[in-house]
């Protein structure tokens, strides 16, 4: 059955009971429409296109109607043109060749006497114009911007916006025309003109400088809207044309950014908008929000910024969750601009932590961490710990990390720091990351006057709760290291500190932990190590006998690691001549700080140099998540692997001393390959050559080979891949830095590389950070690729020209390794 009217087709589709029935109806009708197109039935063309657009809306193929839409546009009837242009906008896009046939029709209709026909042509071009069409019809759009008809000027401004998007170099055509549109009395023309000016300023510095002279005109229009009386045509909930006000505020934000003179002119008007706009309704709140954003991005004075922050503070008390969410987000960005002003609303932010909406809680939590400083760390951490106790499980991993980091950065004294981390361990020890636990053990080992206090506090915590794994691990480590201090008392002890602890009590606790249901493999490993440590701390023969029996009990454990420890520890107890030396307290390692960064606002940045890894992350975006930088000091590796070193993940025998020629590689980066189950780097021929010699080719030496990754300004980076002889999942890449024709020595050479998340990367040190003219340096990077995916690299190279002292930065992508290098 063929449906000859659109209403009949819609009725038939709606009456279908299954998707198969609907497909059958659409297929039959599509076939009938194709037949009609082939027969050149002009009388049915309008109806067929209407039905075809309905079919397109249902998601079925409708490409075969493109040419018919062009024929409909050529019709002299306005209704045919309207439907034809609608079909072109829906069925065509800028990538299709058919679009070139539309250009002539658009040009003809832009000269039509009917303003609505001109509007159809401008609207169509504004939706689907390609770069070629924009170049061809740019002069027509410019002409229509000067039309005496306000409807045509409005449509032409929107079309000019599309032209500027597609071909930015054409913006010069519209600069003079659009200036006069700022004084247009028609609000629709003014709205589109301000939108176009904003885009022009963002595209071109020249246009920005030109329109900064128009700041008084923009301010006059904004002030007239704020002070104008009731206008039925433009009033929205008691606010005069909020859409134009928002656009004007956004334009002021662009014009005042980084310009103190222009910003100075805006202060009074922005203050007037902020104080005279009613925030009782969403319309007023939208204007206030844009005002706040503008104040924060321009060079506004301090009083005006305080006013803006106070507006956000009022938003926090609003009942609408959307407004509160926006306020929290904006306050978080504002932290770098005016920290003290945001601090005044700290109590309101803390109240948002208990909001029923999880999005509000998440934003409030981010802002709460950003508010912490030296003066309020005690109060803020106390509130955050109270929230941690009742927080959802998804919040706890990040909260434990950031609370411990904040405590480490702003702690008034070591005891408060230790108490805070202990509270975190007791409340959410199962969610504490390993590096946070390692940092806590570093802290304890460095505060010798608090060894006994910490051990006794942990002992009490373990007596009451052994369900939190991180707490159990920390307690077993402290008991093993400072068991002799645990038996003492101290003036620093409080009511939560253990008193009159005996050796028997300690051994009973370790046995209870091992016999309990929460004794994981890690807990048993720590407990055995604590037991062997205590054999060197305790004196009573009964306690020593029980500890030895406890260790011997695990000599037949099913876990190989635990069995090995038990056997080795049993043998060690019998070696009286070396036992005391082996069981000495671990030396205090160097603490490595982890900093928490707060988001920046707009283009304002603190005068602080970011770490290279963060720079690279901003370079690569989200698709490549694993980054690596040149090898950090070996002391940081000791910090990260503290637990492993203390509890002897391998044999208790001392490791062989490193060769003087062996380079120190990576901090946590050194364990990147271990995370994938790969062996640690061995001295392959390529890496040995790099670590022993400088690897610099003096004059006359042959130039290194490899794939070219960067070749700019006379400096080349060449990549030589090779399979690792000890591991088929690892690719060794020799990076050759060639100072071919820079004309001077290169200094401060630094290469950063990012790889996809499925791969891991490890750096060996660069042979030299100085490359004289005509010479080379090299560096080995190792890429673990267990999934055998294609290796893609994103590189960021920086160096300083010793002659001009200019710092050069180059960025590049490389994926040209052969298929066998995976």
Automatic annotation (TrEMBL):
Residues 702-818 form the GAE domain. It is found in: Cytoplasmic vesicle membrane; Golgi apparatus. GO terms for cellular component: AP-1 adaptor complex; cytosol. PROSITE patterns: GAE. Keywords: Cytoplasmic vesicle, Golgi apparatus, Membrane, Protein transport, Transport. The keyword Membrane applies. Residues 591-610 are annotated as: Disordered. It comes from the Eukaryota. It holds the Pfam family Alpha_adaptinC2. Residues 591-603 have a biased composition (Basic and acidic residues). One of its GO terms (biological process) is cytosolic transport. Its main location: membrane. The keyword Protein transport applies. Belongs to the adaptor complexes large subunit family. Adaptor protein complex 1 (AP-1) is a heterotetramer composed of two large adaptins (gamma-type subunit APL4 and beta-type subunit APL2), a medium adaptin (mu-type subunit APM1) and a small adaptin (sigma-type subunit APS1). AP-1 interacts with clathrin. This is AP-1 complex subunit gamma. It comes from Thamnocephalis sphaerospora.
């Amino acid at each position: 059955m063929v449906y000859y009217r659109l209403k009949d087709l819609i009725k038939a589709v709606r009456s279908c009971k299954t998707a198969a029935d609907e497909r059958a109806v659409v297929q039959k009708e599509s076939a009938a429409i194709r037949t009609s197109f082939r027969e050149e039935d002009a009388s049915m063309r309008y109806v067929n296109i209407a039905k075809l657009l309905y079919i397109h809306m249902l998601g079925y193929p409708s490409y075969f109607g493109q040419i018919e839409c062009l024929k409909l546009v050529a019709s002299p009837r306005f209704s045919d043109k309207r439907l034809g242009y609608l079909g072109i906008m829906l069925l065509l896009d800028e990538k299709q060749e058919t679009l070139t046939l539309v250009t002539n029709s658009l040009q003809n209709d832009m000269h039509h006497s009917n303003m609505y026909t001109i509007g159809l042509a401008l609207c169509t071009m504004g939706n689907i114009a390609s770069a070629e069409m924009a170049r061809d019809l740019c002069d027509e759009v410019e002409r229509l911007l000067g039309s005496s008809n306000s409807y045509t000027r409005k449509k032409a401004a929107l079309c000019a916006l599309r032209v500027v998007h597609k071909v930015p170099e054409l913006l010069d055509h519209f600069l003079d025309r659009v200036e006069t549109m700022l004084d247009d009395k028609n609000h629709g023309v003014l709205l589109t003109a301000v939108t176009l000016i904003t885009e022009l300023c963002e595209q071109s510095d020249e246009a920005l400088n030109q329109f900064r002279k128009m700041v008084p005109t923009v301010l006059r229009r904004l002030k007239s809207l704020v002070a104008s009386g009731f206008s039925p045509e433009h009033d929205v909930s008691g606010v005069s044309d909020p859409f134009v006000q928002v656009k004007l505020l956004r334009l002021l934000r662009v014009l005042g950014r980084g310009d103190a003179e222009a910003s100075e002119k805006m202060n009074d008007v922005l203050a007037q908008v902020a104080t005279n706009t009613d925030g009782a309704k969403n319309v007023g709140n939208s204007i206030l929000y844009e005002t706040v954003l503008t104040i924060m991005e321009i060079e506004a004075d301090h009083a005006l910024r305080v006013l803006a922050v106070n507006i956000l503070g009022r938003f926090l008390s609003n009942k609408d969750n959307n407004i509160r969410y926006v306020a929290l987000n904006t306050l978080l960005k504002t932290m770098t601009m005016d920290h003290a002003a945001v601090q005044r609303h700290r109590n309101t932010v803390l109240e948002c932590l208990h909001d029923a909406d999880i999005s509000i809680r998440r934003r409030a939590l981010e802002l709460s961490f950003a508010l912490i400083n030296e003066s309020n760390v005690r109060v803020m951490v106390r509130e955050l710990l109270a929230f941690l106790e009742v927080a959802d499980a998804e919040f706890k991993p990040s909260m434990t990390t950031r609370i411990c980091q904040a405590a480490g950065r702003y702690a008034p004294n070591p005891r408060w720091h230790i108490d805070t981390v202990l509270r975190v361990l007791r409340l959410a020890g199962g969610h504490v990351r390993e590096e946070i636990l390692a940092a806590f053990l570093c802290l304890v080992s460095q505060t010798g006057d608090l060894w006994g206090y910490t051990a006794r506090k942990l002992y009490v915590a373990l007596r009451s709760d052994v369900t939190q794994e991180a707490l159990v691990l920390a307690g077993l480590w402290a008991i093993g290291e400072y068991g002799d201090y645990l038996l003492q008392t101290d003036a620093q002890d409080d009511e939560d500190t253990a008193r009159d602890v005996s050796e028997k009590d300690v051994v009973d606790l370790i046995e209870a932990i091992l016999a309990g249901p929460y004794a994981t493999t890690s807990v048993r490993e720590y407990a055995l190590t604590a037991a062997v440590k205590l054999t060197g701390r305790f004196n009573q023969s009964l306690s020593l006998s029980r500890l030895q029996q406890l260790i011997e009990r695990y000599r037949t454990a099913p876990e190989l690691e635990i069995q090995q420890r038990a056997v080795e520890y049993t043998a060690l107890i019998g070696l009286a001549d070396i036992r005391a030396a082996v069981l000495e307290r671990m030396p205090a390692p160097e603490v490595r700080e982890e900093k928490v960064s707060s988001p920046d606002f707009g283009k304002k940045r603190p005068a602080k140099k970011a770490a290279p890894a963060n720079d690279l992350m901003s370079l690569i975006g989200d698709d490549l998540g694993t980054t690596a930088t040149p090898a950090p000091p070996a002391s940081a590796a000791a910090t990260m692997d503290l637990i492993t070193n203390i509890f002897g993940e391998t044999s208790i025998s001392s490791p062989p001393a490193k060769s003087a020629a062996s380079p120190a590689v990576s901090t946590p980066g050194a364990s990147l390959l271990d995370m994938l189950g790969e062996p640690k780097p061995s001295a392959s021929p390529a890496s040995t050559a790099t670590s022993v010699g400088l690897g610099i080719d003096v004059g006359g030496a042959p130039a290194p080979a490899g794939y070219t990754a960067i070749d700019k300004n006379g400096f080349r980076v060449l990549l030589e891949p090779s399979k690792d002889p000890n591991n088929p999942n690892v690719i060794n890449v020799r990076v050759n830095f060639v100072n071919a024709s820079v004309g001077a020595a290169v200094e401060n050479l630094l290469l950063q590389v990012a790889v996809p998340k499925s791969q891991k990367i490890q750096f060996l040190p660069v042979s030299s950070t100085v490359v004289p003219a005509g010479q080379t340096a090299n560096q080995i990077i190792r890429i673990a690729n267990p999934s055998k995916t294609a290796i893609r690299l994103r590189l960021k190279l920086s160096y300083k020209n010793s002659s001009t002292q200019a710092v050069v930065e180059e960025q590049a992508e490389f994926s040209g390794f052969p298929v066998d290098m995976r």
